[in-house]
């Protein structure tokens, strides 16, 4: 850990790290996945702001590859009941923790700020369900949106995919898998995505500890997710290792400056651009991993979602043309 970097943090990031140190909770890797889930469930309400009202919120269960799959569906205020733009949001949590509630705040912001319908799946978690179970569930959710667009009141031609951290990983993989679809995603909105499970980037050294997500915790997450070491080189685990990213959806990539995943996020944005994919890269130099889920403690979280929405609008010239009910 480079202590000289601490003064470069935004005040809200320093405050969150101070709260974390005061709590003195054991790291996730010191316990079991179930203990980590309980700790995360107890902790995330202190980071998120108040739940913003949306036009409507429902839950629906579909048949997934591994059994029933619950989807939470948000319709923003004033959003038309037909042919609305839509977003599939995939929550973060290292493929091990996180649920529909842990990222509810972000989904509400997207629904209202983008005047769209947001669908968030409660995908299967590791280690009970290892790779590629989460990907399979997310693929099923996207297919449900594409095939059932009329029933959902959305436009199948205007579906974007978004996610943070491990959810960003799943979003990148999904956009690569969907390149041949009749209606592939029109945008991928990525917040500090995990793109290389080898965990060899220099940012793993620069921010190894004391910046929230540690290199030890990230290794624990990964090792619960994969079946064996050979999975690390599978592009569906490490999309940065894909032979080509050409044809993927245009991307918005948000980077936290003090984050072990910073370098691989930067590298993925560069690979996309090199392969001809339109990319908007935005950096929050003074922020830490997970800052988009820390809306209670400052404006950066909502600003990042707003930047993603603005980029999405730029990728889709007819965005927002759906009429309000």
TrEMBL record:
It comes from the Bacteria. Transmembrane segments: none annotated. Residues 87-292 form the Alpha/beta hydrolase fold-3 domain. One of its GO terms (molecular function) is hydrolase activity. Gene3D superfamilies: alpha/beta hydrolase. The active site is at 165. The keyword Signal does not apply. Keywords: Hydrolase. Belongs to the 'GDXG' lipolytic enzyme family. This is Lipase. It comes from Mesorhizobium wenxiniae.
């Amino acid at each position: 850990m480079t202590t000289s970097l601490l003064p470069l943090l935004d005040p809200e990031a320093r405050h969150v790290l101070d709260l974390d140190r005061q709590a003195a909770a054991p790291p996730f890797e010191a316990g079991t996945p179930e203990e980590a889930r309980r700790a995360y469930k107890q902790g995330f309400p202190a980071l998120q702001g108040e739940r913003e009202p949306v036009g409507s919120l429902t839950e629906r269960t579909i048949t997934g590859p591994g059994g029933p799959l619950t989807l939470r569906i948000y319709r923003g205020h004033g959003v038309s009941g037909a042919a609305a733009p839509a977003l599939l949001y995939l929550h973060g949590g290292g493929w091990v923790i996180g649920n529909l509630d842990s990222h509810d705040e972000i989904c509400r912001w997207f629904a209202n700020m983008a005047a769209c319908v947001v669908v968030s799946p409660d995908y299967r978690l590791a280690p009970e369900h290892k790779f590629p179970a989460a990907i399979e569930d997310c693929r099923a959710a996207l297919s449900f949106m594409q095939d059932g667009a009329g029933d959902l009141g959305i436009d199948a031609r205007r579906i974007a995919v978004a996610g943070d951290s491990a959810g960003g990983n799943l979003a990148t993989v999904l956009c690569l898998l969907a390149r041949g679809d009749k209606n592939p995603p029109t945008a991928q909105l990525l917040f500090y995505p995990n793109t290389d499970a080898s965990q060899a980037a220099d940012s793993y050294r620069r921010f190894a500890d004391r910046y929230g997500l540690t290199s030890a915790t990230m290794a624990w997450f990964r090792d619960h997710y994969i079946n064996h070491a050979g999975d690390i080189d599978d592009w569906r685990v490490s999309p940065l290792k894909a032979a080509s990213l050409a044809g993927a959806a245009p991307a918005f990539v948000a980077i936290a400056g003090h984050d072990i995943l910073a370098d691989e996020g930067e590298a993925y944005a560069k690979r996309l651009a090199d392969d001809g994919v339109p990319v908007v890269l935005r950096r929050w130099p003074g922020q830490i991993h997970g800052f988009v889920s820390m809306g209670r403690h400052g404006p950066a979280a909502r600003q990042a979602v707003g930047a993603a929405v603005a980029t999405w609008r730029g990728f889709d010239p007819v965005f927002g043309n759906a009429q309000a009910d």
